[in-house]
Amino acid sequence: MKKPLFEIQDLHVSVEGKKVLNGVQLKIFPGEVHAIMGRNGTGKTTLAYTLMGHPKYEVQSGKILIDGEDITSLKPEERARKRLFLAFQYPVAIPGVSVASFLRASLKAVRSEEVQPSQFRALIREELKHLGIPESFMTRSLNEGFSGGEKKRLETLQLRLLKPKMAVLDETDSGLDIDALRVVSENLQDFRSSERGMLVITHYQRMLNYIKPDVVHVFGSGRILESGGPELALKLEEKGYEWIEGA
Question: Among candidates 87, 114, 77, which has minimal Cα distance to 191?
Fold first, then answer.
């Protein structure tokens, strides 16, 4: 019997004493892409941060598993070494840290070994071409003065370099114009494989026109309210969330 690559078991989470996730259940099998859609304030980003181990979010009960291993108590860097990746909705700028230095440090942390400069250059050059990112980006401070599209392309570059087993994308389409959305989405679609999983968190159908999900979930009140195929996203685009009780 096929085993889940990634699983969330009855996850309950609070922030500063306030309950924010209320029994999230989810299974993602190798090769699958799942989409979570929902209105603002329903807990989608909270879920993403909790999955990656943000210390602000307290897990009251439930489990998070990757390849059957319970990672609920692991630190974010330990989860990254287990090949879990989070693309942020609002990537943070880090003045004084170049993009190249950040990417090399990330590769070293995940692989637990030094990446030689020549090896790094070979890895990065091809990916820069794929995403339409000029090599001059490598000397700029991380995300400082970057447009929304540039930040999201850089997030996608990190994903493609680190090659995680499981990627969580928190509203990667936020702030993208039509051209940037197409480039980023096509590269994410190209990243799909039979050995990886992806969880795409989004408000809108437009990104799902490029990244075809296997399963779509509607999120509301800190839990999954309904699940279905890609047609569910089209229904949400047409009717909104009002028809789902409690959304």
Answer: 87
